[in-house]
Amino acid sequence: MQSGTITALSSTRPVTPSASIPSASDSAATILHDVFGYGAFRDAQGEIVDHLIGGGDALVLMPTGGGKSLCYQVPAIARHRAGRGVALVVSPLIALMHDQVGALEEAGVHAAFLNSTLSFDETQTIEREMMSGRLVLLYVAPERLSTPRMLAQLDSLNERGLLSLFAIDEAHCVSQWGHDFREDYLSLNVLHERYPQVPRIALTATADDLTRADIIERLALSDARVFISSFDRPNIRYAVVEKDDARRQLLRFIHDEHDGDAGIVYCQSRKKVDDTAAWLCTEGVNALPYHAGLDAALRRRHQDRFLRDEGVVMVATIAFGMGIDKPDVRFVAHMDLPKNIESYYQETGRAGRDGLPADAWMAYGLADVVNQRRMIDESPAAEEFKRGQRGKLDALLSLAEAHDCRRVRLLAYFGEASSPCAPHQHACDNCLNPPATWDATEAARKALSCIYRFHQNGGQRFGAVHLIDVLRGKMTEKVTQNGHASLSTFGIGVDIGDAQWRVVLRQLIALGFVQTEGEYNTLELTASAREVLRGEVQLLLREPSAKRSKAAAKTSRGKAKPPPVPLDAAGLARFAALKSWRGLVAREHNLPAYVVFNDATLAEMAQEAPETLDDLSDISGVGAKKLEAYGRELLRVLGGG
Ligand code: ADP
Ligand code: ZN
């Protein structure tokens, strides 16, 4: 398939503008089943779809992988079948439109995109399809929508009643609060002004109140019905490990749990991206780098390989990821602490969109706390803004330091009450393996009073290394120089090892009792340190997890990775055969493999081993068009032929 050209016109029907909208719910359920091959709507999907088919506006807040696309695709098809013409989908990422359109065509839905990658001829063909009202869905970049040419075309469609709906994907791009802000999104309110009768749906996975209010205001959605889904991602396991040798820890994690899986590894700097990717490659991992410093063509090539090939690990800065809707990303790893919980949630959310088990893994240590704090301190922003950033960082740090359920904390941050991981959820590390805690109140008081003594003794400040040396009573050069052997706190902490002191210190910084200052990260007490010194707060800290994680690693090492659903030997063989068949088809169609069928669908086929077309059509994800196109082939593959 060539980009943008229309190959499948099978679902188009003659345009009959007079036809009335069919009964919303049964037509929607039929479309869901026949076109997409799914048995039921998920959560609010059904309600949203009905609301749109009925002509209402909607704002949809749904987590990544929740199934936002169907919320506008099903109404677009229903309204098109009722003679309402074309749905416009505004999406900021032109690089992905090709695959989104490809997926619809695979399902037999007449769709296309308009963006700067098309030739003049291709653009003309698509514009003709649009103007005739034959097209069901048209994806456009926001900057194109407000051009005079496009608006004139939309005017003409609107006059003929052929604008079925507007979908504004990644709607948080309209908010200046987020880092995804796009100027072009601001002009999207033109849609409401010019075409007030056309239903609109705005969708986002960004959950906070500020962003929500911004979307409603800037897109003139005050009359829209707001649908807020639970932001829980039950198939994601959240885990935080203490940084020890982070690269080795990452490699062990990939080897033990995700050998051959697709994943994303986030690093803070470009250099670290390059180094980590190169190192993983020498260790036999199929890794590629991605950051804004690589030239556009190379970036594009790496993104394509990530989307199309199986099992690529993308090592990237946060420049990578928005709109990446590859459903079978099995893990997202953070080598550095993200800025705040919003970023953490958005980045980890790219794992497991297909609903199969996936991991959000983060390595975290003292340096992360110090670096993130320093980045805020040294930024040129106004003090008020910095205060906000510090508050957000604190929330993330307490998530990282938590010894209780991480899912509960994560959801609580977004204002959602929940209980610790239940059996239908992929339990977080703390629920799976409750960490031991120890009463660190006394140790904390020792450390804090030692910092206080430094200050009393000449007003100087020192860093963590020296503090620990003094606590442990080491006669270093610096100790001698500063006469610190005579401090009352010298040697009061010999009973605790260096590593554990670092953990105590990290947690004191994370919890805001100590702050670091300047180039050398010298330590200083905060106002709240007094409460600890006076014995008013008890500090329960996580036991250092080094021993536990080694033990845990041992049990999982060497074990084969479980398939997406439990399969016996014959099932596994069918799964492998289906995957290799899918690879061939995907290459032939120049589409990512998951567009043909996703892993969940293949796994269900391998498990059920259908022998007839009828049985095959019962598998979730097998719609009428795919059944017709691939059914016989699949039965042959399943039959071992
Ligand atoms: P989002 O855009 O919200 O991240 P997608 O629209 O990409 O999510 O959907 C995520 C995955 O869930 C896709 O593979 C999609 O086909 C699947 N999906 C969505 N809705 C349903 C449903 N009702 N039944 C089964 N699978 C669904
Ligand atoms: Zn939990």
Provide a descriptive summary of the structure in words.
The longest helix has 21 residues, at 569-589. The protein folds into 4 domains: 7-228, P-loop containing nucleotide triphosphate hydrolases (Rossmann fold, 3-Layer(aba) Sandwich); 236-433, 3-Layer(aba) Sandwich (Rossmann fold); 438-544, Arc Repressor Mutant, subunit A (Orthogonal Bundle); 569-638, HRDC domain (DNA polymerase, domain 1, Orthogonal Bundle), CATH 1.10.150.80. Strand 10 (287-290), helix 12 and strand 11 (313-316) form a beta-alpha-beta unit. The chain is of the alpha/beta class and 641 residues long. The protein is 46% helix and 12% strand. It has a 7-stranded parallel beta sheet, with helices on both faces. Helix 1 (24-36) crosses helix 2 (45-53). The structure holds adenosine-5'-diphosphate (ADP) and zinc ion. Adenosine-5'-diphosphate (ADP) binds next to helix 3. Zinc ion (ZN) binds at residues 405-407, 420-421, 427-428, 430-431.
What are its keywords?
about 650 residues, alpha/beta, Rossmann fold, 4 domains, globular, disordered N terminus, binds zinc ion
